[in-house]
Amino acid sequence: MGEDSRPAGTHASSGASTGMFPVFAILGLVICVSVLVLLLMQRAIERASRQVAVEDSIVERLDRTLSTMKDAETGQRGFLLTHDEKFLEPSIEARRRIQQELDALDAIGASGALPAADVRKYRALATAKLAEMDSTVALLRAGKVNDAIDTVRGGAGKKLMDDLRDLTEQFVLAGRMRMNEKRDRASSLIASTDSLFGIVAVFDIGFLLWAWQRLRREIALRNRAVLDAQRRRELLHVTLRSIGDGVIVAGVDKRITFLNDVAARLTGWSVEEALGRSCDEVFRIVNESTRQPVESPVDRVLQTGLIVGLANHTLLISRDGREIPIDDSGAPIREADGMLRGVVLVFRDFSEHKHAEYALRLAMEDARAANVAKDNFLATLSHELRTPLTPVVMTLAEWAADSSLPAPWREDIEMMRRNLDLEARLIDDLLDLTRIVRGKLLLNPSLADVDDLLQSVAGMYHGQIEAAGLKLTLRCEAKSHRVFADPSRLQQVFLNILRNAVKFTPRGGAIDILTESGPDETVSIHFHDTGRGMSAEMLARLFLPFEQEMDESARRYGGLGLGMAISKALMEAQGGSIAASSGGPGLGSTFSLTLPVVDACHVEAYPKPESVDPASRQLLKILLVEDHEDTARALKRLLERWGHQVSAAHTKAQAIQQARAVPFDMLLSDIGLPDGSGVELIREIRTFSRAPAIALSGFGMEEDVSNCRDAGLDEHITKPIDFEKLETMIQRLAASARP
Fold first, then answer.
1. Are 697 and 671 in contact (CB under 8 A)?
2. Is residue 631 within 8 Å of 637, Cβ to Cβ?
3. Are strands 645-649 and 589-596 parallel, antiparallel or unpaired?
4. Which one, of 568, 538, 564, lies nearest residue 550 by Cα?
5. Which CATH code, of 3.30.559.10, 3.40.50.150, 3.40.50.2300, 3.40.50.620, is assigned to 614-737?
6. 511 and 469 in contact (C-beta within 8 Å)?
7. Confidence category of residue 437, pLDDT binned at 50, 70, 90
8. d(Cα 403, Cα 581) in Å, to the nearest integer?
9. Second-level CATH architecture of 446-605
10. What local confidence, expressed as pLDDT, does residue 552 receive?
11. Which is more confident, 24 or 585?
């Protein structure tokens, strides 16, 4: 069996491959050689062109140098004629440019493009010419006008300029000759390149004839490739059917060519029914909120040719009327040539995500409601705690004003006042924390003296410091110690730090307070104690609310853990800072505060703290409305001690009746009354009286103050009442109401 048993097609393919190899090899070799020769010629042409460009740049530079020298000479001549220095400005600029051109010519000479000796000669002439111009200018500036003119008339400068022109012309002529030679060479190379292109074209035509024959055979191979592509497409369809998202494929006419099982289940259309239908019919989507139809991603992809996606507020309306929240996107399908052939749409059921989103929204609403409830609770708690403190504070204030009391009683009164102040401070801390969280911290800045405030704080705690067996040292060494801040808030920070130092320093310890001038116009205040110190963990949590050491020795000191958090917020709100450090447990603590100081030259520009001038005090008829009998009695007694006439009412109805019956100069009213509120009261009183009014309330939140002012109350003061502050407020309002 001598015959070859392989198929004929195989024989032909093998023979063609064998016969074509030498042709391809020869053609490839010819092309490679021709390309190499063309490349070499092109490089030679480029090299000749570059040389021409170099020669041209040399000629241009020489012309530019000569022209610049003329500019310099013109400036010199203008100065000689006019004696005006402004004519030398072009000459000065020309000298700078001449120096640059000479340096460039030196570089050209060093490269061999120009003879180095000629370049040196050119520089010598140019330098001599510049020196000649400098000498005439110097003579003229020295007042030797005739000498300068004689120098010019002597002709040395003209001769130097003529020599420069001659040498420049020699350079230019030689350069142009070289340029012509190199242009001729470039032209010759271009002609040779054209010839080579012709030869290559002949070979290309022969190759095209052969390729046409070869193309006929390739068609058969392409048919087999089409079958392979169909098999790959089928594999892709199988893959798309198996993924977990819905997939729809449509052509540029929006008619569906593919639909997987997930898409069929979500849309309610079977694969057989959906094929050939428009996407608008099968994939119907509306906006979740408006229920209006939404532009399909298919339309948007066909319009823009880009990948697009819709926000997750889209509902898919299935064939049976079900509404399914979906997340979808569309992408273009392009051929290898970049032409758009269709769109692939991918979407998924978003129901579980929507349920989770809804649950999260409910949780956030619950959290907001809890926050409002917390604020209301704190406001109510503040009111209920402050109200019983008011009569006690006022009674103690009245006793303290009685000079007949024995000294031991006065000490007891001061002790009770300090503890009541502490109680009020704890209430204020709770409210301050709420204000800080809500970004509504109240400040009343004015000019304050840090040294005075520290001395006041030290005086307030003097008794407790002595009772604790501690030694306090106050050193005021800062040169500038006036700041623009809220004095009461700043004092609150100092008290918080000093109170902690006293609390955590054992008997026999020491507390040192130092002020010193800091960098950048600041004052630094340092509180150092020899107390129990702090661990690194505690330092990291020190300025967080409700944070305290958790060991038994710390718990016995009590407190809410708010003082340092509030102090940090107060310092930062006033442009300052606070930091704490400690060597560790048992090694004491240091608190460092920094505030910007006020320039002594601008002290008068800052508002002064409010105070009452005894000579200008007015005695008023005051209507006091207070339902808490103890508070009403104590406040009435104190106001009368100050010389005011006070009528007391315990309900809204009583207050209105008294206000209509007897004119009054000022109204002091509680907000919470048995038969209404102080807000309702002032609104009714404002219908017949414009007398100033002050709210006395245990509610101290910003909303409470705002509501009082909106209703017509002029001021708001929070219980327990600072009587001196109240009297200052009364006198200020009375003065402003005076005709």
1. yes
2. no
3. unpaired
4. 538
5. 3.40.50.2300
6. no
7. low
8. 45
9. 2-Layer Sandwich (3.30)
10. 46
11. 585
Q: What is the mean pLDDT of the chain?
A: 77
Cα(693)–Cα(597) distance, integer angstroms: 37
- Rounded to whole angstroms, the Cα distance separating 586 from 234 reads 79
CA 122 from centroid of its chain's CA atoms: 62
How far, in Å, are 130, 618, 692, 736 from residue 689 at the CA level? 97, 19, 9, 16
**Which among 375, 394, 382 is positioned nearest to 718, based on CA atoms?**
382
Amino acid at 374: K
Please tell me the least confidently modeled range out of 359-373, 446-460, 529-543, 560-574: 359-373
Element (H, E) at 648: strand 645-649
Domain boundaries, the chain: 8-211, 243-349, 446-605, 614-737
DSSP assignment of 48-66: HHHHHHHHHHHHHHHHHHH
- Find all residues with CB under 8 Å of 589, minimum gap 6, and list them: 501, 504, 528, 529, 531, 533, 534, 580, 581, 582
Q: At what angle do helices 156-242 and 8-82 cross, to 10 degrees?
A: 150
- Residue 138: its pLDDT value, please? 79
Q: Rounded to whole angstroms, how far apart are CA atoms 596 and 520?
A: 8
Phi/psi zone of residue 27: left (φ > 0), alpha (ψ -120 to 50 degrees), beta? alpha
Cβ burial 545-560 (10 Å sphere, 16+ → b, else e): beebbeeeebeeeeee
Q: Is the pTM of this model over 0.85?
A: no
Domain 243-349 is found in CATH 3.30.450.20: yes
Identical topology for domains 243-349 and 614-737: no
Band (pLDDT 50/70/90 cuts) for residue 511 is: very high
Name, in order, each residue with C-beta under 8 angstroms of 438's C-beta and a sequence gap of 6 or more. Answer: 702
Q: Among candidates 497, 510, 501, which has minimal Cα distance to 469?
A: 510
Half-sphere exposure (CA, 13 Å, Cβ side) for 73?
Answer: 19
Rounded CA separation 212/307 (Å): 41
